[in-house]
Amino acid sequence: MADMTLRTITLTVPGMGSDHCAGIVRKTLERLEGVGEIQTNIANHHVRVATSENGPDGEALKVAVEGAGYDVAAVHDEREEESADEAGIEEAYLGQARKRLIIAAVPTALIMLLMMPHMFWQPIPGYLAIIAVLAFPVVFLYGGIATHRSSWRSLRNGTFNMDVLISMGSLPPYLIGLIGFVYPMTSFIEMAATIMTFHLLGRYLEALAKGRASQAIRRLLTLGAKTARVERDGEEIEVPVKELAPGDIMIVRPGDKVPTDGEVVEGESHLDESLATGESIPVYKGTGDGVIGATINKEGRLRVKATRVGGDTFLAQVVRLIDQAQGSRVPIQEFADRMTGRFVPAVLLIALASLIVWALFPEALRPILDWGATFLPWVNPGATTPVLAILAAIAVLVIACPCALGLATPTALMVGSGIGAERGILIRSGEAIQTFKDVKVMVLDKTGTITRGEPKLTDAIPAEGGDETRLLTLAASVENASEHPIARAIVDGARERGIAPGEVSEFRSTGARGVSGKVDGEQVLIGNRRLLEEEGVTGLDALGDDMQALEGKGRTVVIVAAEGRACGIVAVADTLKEESMEAIRGMHALGLHVVMITGDNERAARAVADEVGIDEVQAGVLPEGKVDAIRKLQEKHGNHVAMVGDGINDAAALKQANVGIAIGAGADVAIEAADVTLVRGELTGVVDAMHLSRATFGKIVQNLIWASGYNVAAIPIAAAGLLHPMIGVIAMTTSSLSVIGNSLLLKQRYAREQPKGDGS
């Protein structure tokens, strides 16, 4: 565009629930002068529009989108207030969908209860009037009015959204059914109410499934500290984090969150950086080391100089990464949406053509009726021309009703998601199932995914002439007085080996580098090599080879000394989950290329990869790097990349991947950002989820083939006048029940084919 872009306007469109809907919105906005780049995000229902100086304002964009049949809940210039009312909009939309469903479902249930005895046992006096009254609020009032309004706007705009199909399936049957008050004929009012109710059920389930998708960003924003303690004019004062400026000196006490990104200028401590790096072991920080906002100070008092504030911080960058990944388009269109885009106008044309042809050439077509009457009792060749024309048109509309087509996908998804829930696999969207079946590359995070995410005692190597029991007794006795994760791992590991910690006196923590205390009169010192060298401990060189070998395996090593002499070393590491090897073997059996991307160092990553059989390793990767790594894999392998992760640092990459899979024991943000969540945190669930996605998608395809094939076969029969509308109602009901029944078979079939789906 010629004009310089001055602003970006964001619209919240709650009803934009699929790529088909997003495409209609984009095409509508592209028609406007002065509109540049348009980004649609069906996860959080946002449409971002770049506009020029002479381009449309927010109100004009809103009018255009509403003209396409979609309500706009909010309009924001730039991003300043965007997150303030998002939760309220989501809740309001979900509540509205629930209310419409209830208002439709109650009368429809009563209609169904009345219809069965009326049709098969005893006619009910005033039946037509009763069902007409019951169905009126379903089809015309609060239940269906929004659908018809959207349908009308869409038609006026020259587009065909899903609501056009629903209006076509509900309005004509109701209105034609009213003819029964003046002319004896079958009622189609029941069908009108049923179609609308199924539609509203689908809308509610869609809102329920997608309603929490956009919470990932809002949850991230709550992780940061709200206030900061800073030095101003020689005093410590507390200020809101938003008032911090680069260069401010912040005081971070033990247990506090670091207010914003900065650099340590005084003090030493260990910081829990798991929310940023996904690594469970706290990281040592001393003067000159950088720290990340929202990480937690475990012990020492730190003075930290603020280096990045506001939108420049690590947390803000992760927020932007997730938002960008959410808005990136997946080149997959829903099969049913593509079909309905062409199906609606085609059916309307066929119905109109049937009406005209029967009205103009009845005598040429009557031989068909004469032939059909020989074996179809409902065919009446002697009916008048207007009646034959109307019945043929009605039959086409009735038999082409989208009930079975509309049920094809949601019923299979509901059954498939139910199976998944029983097995600890939560699948958020049909798109994930559709994409998952074609995955070729499985990307795994290390910590908390392949490994347990918590340190465990792995080795205890006494010095020459020493004793392992004495080594662990001394280590556990002193560390039992500490709450550090490494200390707890040593104590728990000693207990597992049958060694109980003894009494310790004069316990002291020497900054962030180690601990000391007296055990049975012996002065014991535990810590890193630098600390023990400073304290003059002897015998360290003899342990050097063992320390180097253990560190080469990615383990954290501490030295235990008693009375100034090294007694040995103990090592802790984040150990493998029991099921990791089995899970990766299962992925290879599915033909997947398995890649591990981790923020850990190369040695530790390679050690884990070799042990479990990973195909490719990318180590030392920061969150930004993880997103880039996923993009490169997508370029290399196509849009067939899935990722499994559990930390906040994985959230953006989970969104960038074609299918994001969160380990349930991990961070809430990762779970909210993912398409699939493994509740029990077992990696074998990934293999089960892939089997389930393939089986579920197979059912969706079967349902769609049946539903569309049924229409293709039945519409010509109806147009020829051989299908009475009442038979069409019965056939349509049978078709819908067949789709539901086929979906229910998924549970039995999947249980038979995948007996180990629960990870057992």
UniProtKB/TrEMBL annotation:
<dbReference type="InterPro" id="IPR001757">
    <property type="entry name" value="P_typ_ATPase"/>
</dbReference>
<dbReference type="InterPro" id="IPR059000">
    <property type="entry name" value="ATPase_P-type_domA"/>
</dbReference>
<feature type="transmembrane region" description="Helical">
    <location>
        <begin position="101"/>
        <end position="121"/>
    </location>
</feature>
<feature type="transmembrane region" description="Helical">
    <location>
        <begin position="188"/>
        <end position="205"/>
    </location>
</feature>
<feature type="transmembrane region" description="Helical">
    <location>
        <begin position="700"/>
        <end position="720"/>
    </location>
</feature>
<keyword id="KW-1278">Translocase</keyword>
<dbReference type="InterPro" id="IPR027256">
    <property type="entry name" value="P-typ_ATPase_IB"/>
</dbReference>
<dbReference type="InterPro" id="IPR023298">
    <property type="entry name" value="ATPase_P-typ_TM_dom_sf"/>
</dbReference>
<keyword id="KW-1003">Cell membrane</keyword>
<protein>
    <submittedName>
        <fullName>Heavy metal translocating P-type ATPase</fullName>
    </submittedName>
</protein>
<feature type="transmembrane region" description="Helical">
    <location>
        <begin position="127"/>
        <end position="148"/>
    </location>
</feature>
<dbReference type="Pfam" id="PF00702">
    <property type="entry name" value="Hydrolase"/>
</dbReference>
<keyword id="KW-0479">Metal-binding</keyword>
<keyword id="KW-0812">Transmembrane</keyword>
<keyword id="KW-0472">Membrane</keyword>
<keyword id="KW-0067">ATP-binding</keyword>
<keyword id="KW-1133">Transmembrane helix</keyword>
<feature type="transmembrane region" description="Helical">
    <location>
        <begin position="387"/>
        <end position="408"/>
    </location>
</feature>
<dbReference type="InterPro" id="IPR023299">
    <property type="entry name" value="ATPase_P-typ_cyto_dom_N"/>
</dbReference>
<feature type="domain" description="HMA">
    <location>
        <begin position="7"/>
        <end position="73"/>
    </location>
</feature>
<feature type="transmembrane region" description="Helical">
    <location>
        <begin position="160"/>
        <end position="182"/>
    </location>
</feature>
<dbReference type="InterPro" id="IPR036163">
    <property type="entry name" value="HMA_dom_sf"/>
</dbReference>
<dbReference type="InterPro" id="IPR023214">
    <property type="entry name" value="HAD_sf"/>
</dbReference>
<dbReference type="Pfam" id="PF00403">
    <property type="entry name" value="HMA"/>
</dbReference>
<dbReference type="InterPro" id="IPR036412">
    <property type="entry name" value="HAD-like_sf"/>
</dbReference>
<dbReference type="InterPro" id="IPR044492">
    <property type="entry name" value="P_typ_ATPase_HD_dom"/>
</dbReference>
<dbReference type="InterPro" id="IPR008250">
    <property type="entry name" value="ATPase_P-typ_transduc_dom_A_sf"/>
</dbReference>
<dbReference type="Pfam" id="PF00122">
    <property type="entry name" value="E1-E2_ATPase"/>
</dbReference>
<dbReference type="InterPro" id="IPR006121">
    <property type="entry name" value="HMA_dom"/>
</dbReference>
<feature type="transmembrane region" description="Helical">
    <location>
        <begin position="343"/>
        <end position="361"/>
    </location>
</feature>
<feature type="transmembrane region" description="Helical">
    <location>
        <begin position="726"/>
        <end position="746"/>
    </location>
</feature>
<dbReference type="InterPro" id="IPR018303">
    <property type="entry name" value="ATPase_P-typ_P_site"/>
</dbReference>
<keyword id="KW-0547">Nucleotide-binding</keyword>
<comment type="similarity">
    <text>Belongs to the cation transport ATPase (P-type) (TC 3.A.3) family. Type IB subfamily.</text>
</comment>
